Amino acid sequence: MFATLKFAALLLAVVVCWATQDYDYNDTEIDEEPTLGDSQYGSLWPLPQKVQISTVVFKLSGASFHIFDAKESSCGASCRLLQNAYRRYDEYIFTSSRKQGQNKSKKALACDMSELQVWITSADSECDSYPSVTSDESYKLSVDSPVAVLKAPKVWGALRGLETFSQLVYKDEYGAKSINRTDIHDFPRFAHRGLLLDTSRHFLPIKVILANLEAMAWNKFNVFHWHIVDDPSFPYLSRTFPQLSQHGAYHPYTHVYTPSDVKMIIEFARLRGIRVIPEFDTPGHTQSWGKGQKDLLTPCYSGASPSGSFGPVNPTLNTTYDFMSMFFKEVSTVFPDAYVHLGGDEVDFSCWKSNPDIQKFMEQQGFETDYSKLESFYIQRLLDIVTTTNKGYMIWQEVFDNGVKLKSDTVVHVWMGNKVEEELQKVTKAGFTTILSAPWYLDYISYGQDWQKYYRAEPLSFKGTDAQKKLVIGGEACLWGEYVDATNLTPRLWPRASAVGERLWSDRDVRDLNDAYSRLAKHRCRMVQRGIPAEPLFTGYCAHEYKGV
Amino acid sequence: MFATLKFAALLLAVVVCWATQDYDYNDTEIDEEPTLGDSQYGSLWPLPQKVQISTVVFKLSGASFHIFDAKESSCGASCRLLQNAYRRYDEYIFTSSRKQGQNKSKKALACDMSELQVWITSADSECDSYPSVTSDESYKLSVDSPVAVLKAPKVWGALRGLETFSQLVYKDEYGAKSINRTDIHDFPRFAHRGLLLDTSRHFLPIKVILANLEAMAWNKFNVFHWHIVDDPSFPYLSRTFPQLSQHGAYHPYTHVYTPSDVKMIIEFARLRGIRVIPEFDTPGHTQSWGKGQKDLLTPCYSGASPSGSFGPVNPTLNTTYDFMSMFFKEVSTVFPDAYVHLGGDEVDFSCWKSNPDIQKFMEQQGFETDYSKLESFYIQRLLDIVTTTNKGYMIWQEVFDNGVKLKSDTVVHVWMGNKVEEELQKVTKAGFTTILSAPWYLDYISYGQDWQKYYRAEPLSFKGTDAQKKLVIGGEACLWGEYVDATNLTPRLWPRASAVGERLWSDRDVRDLNDAYSRLAKHRCRMVQRGIPAEPLFTGYCAHEYKGV
């Protein structure tokens, strides 16, 4: 009986290995025949640039399958980033199925996929570097028996390819871990694929930030735009100015990010190929700064006397710029990324207008009553300060719109919902790189499948030259914090942000909603099984429902 | 030094006991001076009918405070419902602060609140009964040193009063558990305060249902309307017809509610004073029934031949009524509540129209082409069947609108968004009791503080006699399942459903949005601290943020 069973299993394996009908993504017009059923691309998300999936199936045995460094790889056991990733993906692939005490020495069958070799081809793997906007995230993945090979010039591509490999593994009808013969050549369409989280309107516990960095990696995002402080609270614990969080955080101990918290978040992100770009938004959105830093904000006047309330940063005092110099010097050392986001959005002039000292300064400078000139005066000096820290800067679109002189490597962040295409035209015509967020404000919610709206948005639909379009380096999904905290942020973000993830990674022509629905529904169940409460797209179920409440 | 400290503490206690400015809810026009700050009613939610809170403060020591049965109580240590509730509320009140090894024999100080006595005043406490629409939920709570007394005719009122007592306890600035001298006389404005959850469009794990029953109790809801089956899936495991879930559930083992699951949910609800009313919606919304029960649904025709798809329950076959008799006989024994919800909404006639057998039956019955007559024919027979099981029934408003003859104790469930007041007028004029859900479809989401919309809705704003208004016995918040499952249901429900909870419990005049905001923000932080991920109302924070992801 045992022998018979073994033979039957072998026979089945051989049959499974025979059928060889190949699909070629490039040969197929996926828009032509929308299917409500399964996608030929299984659960791949975001869809790789070039995919060939055959019907030949290999099995992965939890007892024998392993991820290894290829012998030829420029980077091996000493690369913590890769070893860490191997462990992570091994766990994802064999969730609960690689049981303790399993015979690790089991010999692989003929049709087993015994290992995945990871081969870093460039002499400098960048294993110990931080990712950047120029990081090479490309990879080639060849899944064929008895070994699969993942080739990437740098570790960043290897990380993306490991995720893709894990997405190719599925359970067959008998519950056996399986993978089809597959060839993939993949690279991102846009270099900047970001997610903005806001830790000022609500404090987000470290655990929540880490969990969402993890989910970002599954969706091939590579920038965490950390909108760390704003009007309501200042949770960033500054070594230089500890009074800022002491008085400006919701709570000076429980609702702050200490230097070691920040360090941990940056390293956790780096290990997943994710940049951390902090935003310290000024001169508006700074109410919480004023609680710990005297004279930083403009006192508002009611008639002839101060009203007791405060407006934007006071741009007329030298102490303001002294403070900013010291503050951004610290920021430039704490955050390794080459860029810092300086905000500059939504400056309300009413308080400046009410203040007689500001009025006097306006006269002296010859600004007459044009307060946008005062705003530009401030921003200009701030940009000069940040430039001395050797950082590049990102700014919200108003700074560009107001005609502030910007360094050539400035990234202009387009967020306003009206005249988006005109803005992209203008910014790129002026020669600036830009990223887009206007269509992707995920804090705005509505009934139904709004992921489709995010998915349909096309960053390059504006009129412009090829050179202009090349200046659009990507986009960011923004989840502002008015209505989200640890209780609801994660399900509100996923899989809605996944739609943005595919738009920014995959080819422009990947836009079939039915195919996307089929893949995304599976991708979201995978996120749920990996422990992230990604909400449902619509009626249906996952084999493994979320285990929390 | 030790003696000095002790003396200081005593002095402080005396001072705290001195100030005696009383607030009287009935004396105060809470609408007149909207305050953005704290409510004088602290974190009470829903607001009790009559509240007097004094400024005299007592301390609760985790070492000495306990909840006891009053000596005079008609119901004591043998009442599992109460003992269970005492333990629950003891834990809520002393979350993490009653540490192991603490000296339990510590003597109470003069100003300590040493115990809460629970006194059931009626001879029949109803400890072992199920709650019903006529259950007495009233209670009186007197908080005064050294004992607080909670008097209630029945255990149901005691449960409501225990929740209120726990809401009165707060931490003072030194972190000491405190409670003000308080007198409360409370009872619900409406007898039926329900929440509909839908376990067909998405399966909800038992854990999620129990957690939300718990949260319902905190908000003084008393009906769990379990929309257990519908088109997409049939998770109810029927002993009589196990094939229904075997073929109709998303998965026959992992996505079903077994008889013991159902029993557990009903008992968990009972211990919290919550009725479980199951809905088995027919003749529409029954696609999933058809998978396990041959010939139950109407075969749709495409021209002269069956199309392979199916429509509503087939009302022309005797086998249909045989099936329904057996099925509802089982339902009547599994669910102890006096009512069952029979649905009857949204019947699509197109499939009936396409079927030649149905057409023939229509002719025989003399219905001509009026398919609502066929619908009524079916419902009428179903109601007769259910009547023989000695259950009352609830039905969605269409059944009433279509003129089906209803038993006098039928509850008509008003859900349609248009002409709500007219419908309430009509239903109550016809002498039927009714509950309202139209303004409280919580599955519809929008940006911002939509809880205010739910809060403003007033069930008795329609024109009608006092007798008519008395027929409105309450309402239900509905969270239909298209877009919610275990990942996002709980934060989407709370505290939005809390707004409905106060509307249905508190006095009609309790409608000050500022006061409500202040209390509800605290109430939601309390829910978070008790482990439920209730989402934020707006920008801000909780002292104890949610610990999950």
UniProtKB/TrEMBL annotation, chains A, B:
Enzyme superclass (EC): hydrolase
Pfam families per record: Glyco_hydro_20, Glycohydro_20b2
Coiled coil segments of this chain: none
Residue ranges constituting the Glycoside hydrolase family 20 catalytic domain according to the UniProt record: 190-507
Keywords: Cytoplasmic vesicle, Disulfide bond, Glycoprotein, Glycosidase, Hydrolase, Lipid metabolism, Lysosome, Signal
Quaternary structure and interacting proteins, as annotated: There are 3 forms of beta-hexosaminidase: hexosaminidase A is a heterodimer composed of one subunit alpha and one subunit beta (chain A and B); hexosaminidase B is a homodimer of two beta subunits (two chains A and B); hexosaminidase S is a homodimer of two alpha subunits. The composition of the dimer (isozyme A versus isozyme S) has a significant effect on the substrate specificity of the alpha subunit active site.
Family the UniProt entry places it in: Belongs to the glycosyl hydrolase 20 family.
Name recorded for this polypeptide: Beta-hexosaminidase
The organism of origin for this protein: Hucho hucho (huchen)
